[in-house]
Prior knowledge:
- It is built from 18 helices and 27 strands.
- By secondary structure, it is an alpha/beta fold.
- The chain folds into 4 domains: 1-36 and 232-384, ANL, N-terminal domain (Rossmann fold), CATH 3.40.50.12780; 40-54 and 75-206, Rossmann fold (3-Layer(aba) Sandwich), CATH 3.40.50; 390-427 and 438-471, Luciferase, Domain 3 (Luciferase, domain 3); 475-574, GMP Synthetase, Chain A, domain 3 (2-Layer Sandwich), CATH 3.30.300.30.
- Strands 1, 2, 10, 11, 12, 13, 14, 15, 16, 17, 18, 20, 21 and 22 form a 14-stranded mixed beta sheet that branches. It has a 5-stranded parallel beta sheet with strand order 4-3-5-6-7. It has a 3-stranded antiparallel beta sheet with strand order 8-9-19.
- Helix 5 packs across helix 6, helix 5 packs across helix 9 and helix 10 (233-243) crosses helix 11 (262-274).
- The longest helix has 17 residues, at 75-91.
- Mean pLDDT is 93; it is low at 581-589.
- The site of magnesium ion has 2 residues, from loops.
- One of its GO terms (molecular function) is ATP binding.
Amino acid sequence: MAAxxxxxxxxxxxSSNLPDYERGRASFTWADARRxxxxxxxAHAAVDRHVDEGRGDVVAxxxxxxxxxxxxxxxxxxxxxxxxxxxxLEGLGVKPGxxxxxxxxxxxxxxxxxxxxxxxxxxxxxxxxxxxxxxxRQRLRAGNGRVLVTTAxxxxxxxxxxxxxLPDLEHVLLIGxxxxxxxxxxxxxxxxxxxxxxxxxxxxxxxAEDPAFVHFxxxxxxxxxxxxxxxxxxxAHEATGRFALDLREGDVFxxxxxxxxxxxxxxxxxxxxxxxxxCIVDEAEFDAVRWYSILExxxxxxxxxxxxxxxxxxxxxxxxxxxxxxSSLRHIASVGEPLNPEVVAWGEEALGKPIHDTWWQxxxxxxxxxxxxxxxxxxxxxxxxVPGIEVGIVRRDASGERVLDSQGNPVLVAGPGxxxxxxxxxxxxxxxxAYLNAPERYASCFAGGWYLSGDLARIDADSxxxxxxxxxxxxxxxxxxxxxxxxxSALMEHPAxxxxxxxxxxxxxxxxxxxxxxxxxxxFEPGEGLSRDLxxxxxxxxxxxxxxxxxxxxxxxPHTQSGKIMRRVLRARAQGLPEGDLSTLGASR
Length: 589
Ligand code: ATP
Ligand code: MG
């Protein structure tokens, strides 16, 4: 699988932030990284510090939208506005440790409120703005949310219908000119509150272990979990921004994730600002032509996006790209789902830059494994552990169960290439410190000094990590463990296939048989001929033991709202079982 390598010129390698991986790893310590931030309050490290050090005029956030001209906030302006918000919260009697939820589109006020709440040492819990009332109610209840920052429209549609079920919610602060159109207990206009608040604020001493964020997982494998993160996480955000995303002074960085998900706050706000770079925020939704225009017009130099989005751009073809001047683009990275090698190569061909995969989870809080700017990419690999992070592979037995020794400690695989569960040596600054209301589940993620990720992977002799599949998605067939990613990647190499999902379906003979669901690209029609061709293509690539027994063409695959394929829904469907109440998981699309 590692046959193809996309190389780097010596010039790129020597000018990147991690020119020599081995030496960078050997000399790195979290303690040094922490010291360079001069204090761990996230808002200080990401915003105020730059003003104190004379970089207040640099643009921190630049908001672009379809209709209005761009709006900008410099580091200095963001520092003052977030001071106002911190004062406003204190004026309301909100205390350190209280949960402040945020539910809105990607508006300046949302970002100001998040930074201001961190200054007041409140815990920020961002919600995805497309959630309906039920996912909003569940999450606000799970966190006993005391404050909610939202818009009048979102309040009317998503909060008012469930307000009686939210006894802890005291203050609802509405963004926008139409705030007075809504009435309800504790509801008031954010602008009025801000106008009365002072721009002077001094952040009280903040402990590295003080909680800062609650991020809810995507709900790909089941009920979303609320992962609690602390202020010390900013140390990992700054370091990974530098190493994995290669962020440098003067960069224009665009992270396409919504701040309702961990990527959109960790890398759409905290990490780039901690690195002092300008962050583009697109207020609108995906559109191939607009996305290419943003890359071009905003002169984006570093772009962090997701495989689903990249596949949608591939599907849109060459036309929206024609004549574009994308010479500012220096580094492209991806996260969230397996990045099939074809997409890495497409980046190189269509955009002139390959895609650098990175791996992490809501629970890890920051990037743990990455392909670096200075290093050749092995397409299909997630890269190598970031400095400060040690990864291991925990053995799984033939039935897929974790292997533990007599003391309950995980047993690591014997050597390179053996598949097992991806684990990370504890602790690291952005490691989750709790799951909301689920201490036992939290405890079950750790054993013998390792965090157990639930993802299956292998590590090669050069410490590149290869994704095999989620533990829940791995297929046990005729005594083999088959990772869906390998099968999906092979199917996506077929010219007709733009998206693929592979599952195991119970089978009396082999335990589970491999079945695939594919979405065809424009100009391809499902039919006998194409099915036969796809089956033959898969058998040639994968061999008959691993190739799917059945390939079904679908109009679309089920995704979470954050864009990930939900194989559990396909498994339930294949077995004629109920698919679950997806609306309550915020997972229907
Ligand atoms: P839930 O935990 O609720 O089921 P989720 O795991 O999708 O949802 P996230 O924390 O948003 O929630 O996603 C992390 C997961 O995404 C990883 O555990 C992994 O399965 C997948 N993932 C992230 N990056 C990559 C990558 N580069 N390659 C393959 N898979 C990835
Ligand atoms: Mg998960």
